[in-house]
Amino acid sequence: MEKRTDKNGYTIIFAIIMVVVVGSLLAFTASSLKPNIAENERIEKQQNILYALGVNDNEGDGDITFVSTKEVAALFKTKVSEQLVLESKDGKIIKTMTRQEFMDANNGKEPYLIDVKKQQANAKAGESRLLPLFVGQSKDGETQYVAPIRGKGLWDAIWGYVAVDKDMIVRGAFFDHAAETPGLGANIKQRYFMDDFDGEHLLTDAGVFKGIKVAKGNADPKNMDKTDYEVDALAGATITGDGVSAMIKADFKLYMPYFQNLKKVN
Amino acid sequence: MGLLSKKDAKLITDPLADNNPITIQVLGICSALAITAELKASLVMAIAVLFVMGVGNVVISLIRNLIPSKIRIIVQLIVVASLVIIVDQVLKAYAYELSKTLSVFVGLIITNCIIMGRFEAFALGNGPWRAFLDGIGNAVGYGVILIIVGFFRELLGSGTLFGIPVLGDAIEKTGLYSTGYENNGFMLMPPMALIIVGLLIWVQRSRNKDLIED
């Protein structure tokens, strides 16, 4: 005789009950832990921005240590003097908001919490895109501008925070990824890759935007030439590297009008 | 052993040594290579697997007579996947930096062959208590190896244990470093985990000749 558990009807009912039970269990866990996770991600964003500004607890060459979670709020307040929000449409900046103006218009939401992914989707849909720009002071007192960028790696999203000076010369970079291959693409968040961006120019002398290419067969592997618009690629991570080049190019280009304007004012 | 009968106790002690999931059954090698560069990551991975194995084995065992045999692999996968998602969410909420370190490897628990192997081979045919012991035993056996490998890789590779410098300061050249000792960066590479596991297998088999197959 066929066993009860072998029948098709039983199998289907079992599957349905299982899906409902497991689904509600997971939904409950996710929603009850959500505030904690959101708080952690908020702290991480502040740490990343500070890292790009050179405010970190790094010791030694390969070390990536953010400022501690206890200090981060205070440091973020003192080191990041302004959080600008640029409204960009069709490559032009149509409006510039200060942190206070943005917060007044958005129920007190801080500009650094702007979801870059969502803004990119807005731009794709033909709407205007909000570009956060964090103005801060580096260790040696130079004014730097940190922009969040986001793009695609091989498997999933990659993103970063890049600090530039008023001439759009890179002063610090931090990259992160959702699920790049450990040992290959995941190495974009290694010091030897991120530090290569230091001092690289984004603009030509004539002021044309060129971006920075993560290049294979780079003639300058020690990265002595800072105006070749190239950094040395990672072995075995071509697509992730191309993703880094692409996100720098696409996202930073939108900020260019702001820096051009900055030059005119000075 | 008051609480455990001799047979039950064997469920726990066997996987610790003579039937170790990593060194004897050679299961779960992928995670053993990937996350053992630091002792802390090894320990957390071991605890996460311990939780998933213990609970998973009991859940599967409790519903073993209800599971339709046609979709039993899918049911096992769903049980382990939901447990892993819960572990992942809890880590994200309470140990965020660690969850970043483990990143994709937490997800990899789902495909950890030890877990599916024990579900299929043991939990489907045994009661919850015995299944629990089997799960704990195998997870501890797995964890012990992970921690041993992590210990040597972090000590020799970075000169630290749990991130605390134990051999002196590599930059200031104090402690052991003053004698000219240097960290072996190669220990941090995944292949070195394989070599350490190989050495463990060698030590184990040289002590217990029964394990040697000819």
TrEMBL record, chain A:
Membrane-crossing residue ranges in chain numbering: 12-33
Cellular localisation: Cell membrane
Membrane topology, record value: Single-pass membrane protein
Principal cellular location given in the protein's record: membrane
Annotated EC: 7.2.1.1
Listed cofactors: FMN
FMN phosphoryl threonine PTM positions: 238
A Gene Ontology cellular-component term: plasma membrane
Reactions listed under catalytic activity: a ubiquinone + n Na(+)(in) + NADH + H(+) = a ubiquinol + n Na(+)(out) + NAD(+)
One GO term of the biological process aspect: sodium ion transport
An example molecular function term from Gene Ontology annotations: oxidoreductase activity, acting on NAD(P)H, quinone or similar compound as acceptor
Family statement: Belongs to the NqrC family.
PANTHER family named among the record's database cross-references: NA(+)-TRANSLOCATING NADH-QUINONE REDUCTASE SUBUNIT C
Function per UniProt: NQR complex catalyzes the reduction of ubiquinone-1 to ubiquinol by two successive reactions, coupled with the transport of Na(+) ions from the cytoplasm to the periplasm. NqrA to NqrE are probably involved in the second step, the conversion of ubisemiquinone to ubiquinol.
Protein name per its UniProtKB record: Na(+)-translocating NADH-quinone reductase subunit C
Organism: Psychroserpens burtonensis
